[in-house]
Specification:
The chain is built from nine helices and no strands. It has 301 residues and is mainly alpha-helical. The protein is globular, with a radius of gyration of 20 Å. The chain starts with a helix and ends with a helix.
Length: 301
């Protein structure tokens, strides 16, 4: 692929991981039991905000390669009424500002439940809107394989899948106080159970959606039919890599997650293996995004 396409692959993926992790963190924050260890929870939020910050910075850096003159990027927000790109940039700026405020409050150890709740809710609304705006950019009438509700579903699926898996890794790198606090530990176990179960389903859904993006117009036009056959012939190994790395990564993640949490004080390869399993799933989603952009080159009108 061209440099521009690679930059878009990594921009969309890192932005999706950041938003997904933030949304899972918000779910955990609002459903954890009252009276939980506030210090352990605050430390966990601080670490999570730091990871999300790094993901967003990486996404922005990747996005700059897509612009001929990054210094003029603000001009892209001049058409908010009609342009989803303008809306994406504005929403991205708002999401970054909210996250920066949360990170600053966390660093200053200012823990106001009301302010925290307002910022988390606002960040969730803006994050979801940002995900939708990103996906809408690609719903072009001139590209039949993209002009479908499948696209936003696929983007949201990637966000929740990768964000939830990264949440599990964020949990295991926390100090023992997070795992040993009764209420926190109970909520974490319930959430991680959901992640373990849901991740397998999400992976199959993502692979199915990736297939449908190319397949949905096959019976309507010969051009799309031919493009699908051509895509399968040219990118067959990439399809198989997406399938294999995703399923293997999910399987390893589920098997290594609980042994690591149960033995977080013991020496062993669990932490590294958990990260490797996440990277395999990330590789699978990267392959899916490459195939997504390839469908434009082949099926676009």
């Amino acid at each position: 692929m061209r440099k521009v396409e690679w930059s878009l692959v990594f921009f969309t993926l890192f932005a999706q991981v950041a938003i997904g992790l933030f949304l899972i963190l918000v779910v955990y924050q609002f459903f954890q039991q009252e009276g939980a260890n506030s210090t352990a929870l605050a430390d966990f939020r601080s670490m999570s905000f730091l990871i999300i910050d790094l993901l967003l910075v990486t996404a922005v850096l990747a996005a700059t390669y897509h612009l001929d003159r990054p210094i003029n990027a603000y001009l892209a927000m001049a058409n908010l009424k009609k342009s989803w790109l303008s809306r994406e940039m504005l929403l991205g700026l708002l999401f970054g500002c909210i996250l920066s405020i949360l990170s600053l409050l966390s660093w200053l150890e200012i823990y106001s439940p009301l302010i925290l709740s307002i910022l988390l809710i606002a960040g969730s609304v803006v994050g979801i809107a940002l995900l939708y705006a990103i996906s809408r950019i690609y719903m072009l009438r001139t590209v039949p394989t993209w002009n479908s509700i499948i696209v936003p579903f696929s983007f949201f699926g990637t966000s929740i899948l990768l964000g939830s898996l990264l949440f599990g890794i964020t949990v295991v790198i926390q100090p023992p106080s997070l795992h040993s606090s009764g209420d926190l530990s109970t909520m974490l176990d319930q959430l991680l159970d959901g992640i373990s179960t849901g991740s397998v389903t999400l992976m199959f859904i993502q692979i199915l959606l990736s297939y449908l993006i190319l397949k949905r117009h096959r019976v309507q036009t010969l051009a799309i039919d031919s493009s699908f056959d051509y895509t399968w012939t040219r990118y067959r190994l990439l399809f198989l890599l997406r399938l294999g790395s995703g399923l293997i990564g999910i399987t390893l993640y589920i098997n290594f997650l609980y042994p690591f949490i149960g033995n977080y004080q013991a020496e062993g390869p669990w932490g590294l293996l958990l990260i490797v399993s996440f990277l395999m799933v990330f590789l699978s989603e990267t392959c899916g995004r490459i195939l997504f952009y390839a469908s434009y080159k082949i099926a676009g009108i």
